[in-house]
Write the structure tokens for this entry.
Amino acid sequence: MQVWNDYLSENKDRFLNELLDLLRIPSVSADSHYKNDVARCAEAVKDNLLKAGCTQAEICPTAGHPIVYGELMVNPNAPTVLVYGHYDVQPADPLELWKSGPFEPEIRDGKIYARGACDDKGQMFMHVKALEVMHKTQTLACNVKFMIEGEEEVGSSNLGIFLENNKEKLKADIVLVSDTSMISMEHPSIETGLRGLAYMEVEVTGPNRDLHSGVYGGAVANPINTLCKMIASLHDADNHITIPGFYDKVQNLTDAERQALNNAPFDLKEYQDDLKVNDVWGEKGYTTLERTGIRPTLDVNGIWGGYTGEGAKTVLPSKAFAKISMRLVPHQNSDEIAALFQKHFESIAPASVQVKVTPHHGGEPVVTPTDSIAYKAASKAIQTAFGKDPIPTRGGGSIPIIALFEKVLGLKTVLMGFGLDNDNIHSPNEKYDVVNFYKGIETLPYFHKYYAEMSR
Ligand code: BES
Ligand code: MN
Ligand code: MN
């Protein structure tokens, strides 16, 4: 709509500068050193919500980092959209690989470089600015509630309780989230599923103390060697996961569904070139899009032990550790998979070592409907703003709270993400294209307009 475009172009620079201010706050949820910065960021989000037109906004303390809630109710007969996002970010290290400081946002080549630029401050902030656009032009057709949390990157462990305790406050008709990616600006898409997660930590202990690797080496199990062998055995020659029962509940898609998934534009060469790999890797019998979209995986996220300092130290270490995560698909369950992993990992340990398996956070996979009013409104919004129908895709990432929106609040979600897979989220030099930021602010008001119209 013309009024929206006019308002957006008159306020473009300010919108961008306000996002840069938010990106300057190092709201790293995983690291307690940043606790005050996380709290400061929550305050900044609250101020921004009020400035954008929310009649009420508050900081809701939790056992961990606070949740920011805000609302603008315009019409009791209109549907209510609950916008979810997160203001916390992943740690920025390794710092030396950043071209500019992770919390000193810089625009280079039309891209905003900063931790959180895409995941999720940049995308969450599009909703705040879209609200301002609709509010200031008096065109807001839906009631809007915001729930912006500060613990998404550490598993949202306190948000479930918040949902349970605030069912009335959070009453809505749909959850709208921008925290996923689309294929490209030329091929807009909507993710219609997210994978679940089971995250484990393992500790392998050999001898009771570090040993001289010459005096004892070859005669006593080296826990690092043993751990590597155990980890290697978790995939077979076809890269299937070997944990008994792991695939039992995995939903197999029909040939037609798989065909539809593979119709999405995807250039394997471009993918490889971008990552500087000469070949891809994965489960035999599946394409790359299937491997990330509809198949479960197991990856080591970190492994340590022994001597890693300067120079060489001949040591046979006492302990070795690894963090191992599994991405899950419908209808796998994270607790069940964690238990299967634990049982299997303990069973494959040779008598020469002891293993301890500790589960970390988990989350359930979700599939979002494509035949709902909300999906149709999102699709029409993208059609209007991009001039193209969005392609439905399956995302490989996880947002564990989405499954709880349905379970606790009975609400479905629409994932209207504007990020790109190569935005380097969780990685050095995270970026978000300025055009994506503006395009999101342009597109989201159409969602509210069409959703209100279609709900009548
Ligand atoms: N926004 C991401 C998830 C995501 C990214 C979904 C790209 C789809 C496409 C989210 O912030 C995230 O990183 N989630 C974590 C899980 C969490 C429990 C730490 C993840 O997927 O690793
Ligand atoms: Mn995110
Ligand atoms: Mn993330």
Summary: The mean pLDDT is 97. Residues 325 and 376 are 34 Å apart (CA to CA). The first helix runs from residue 2 to 23.
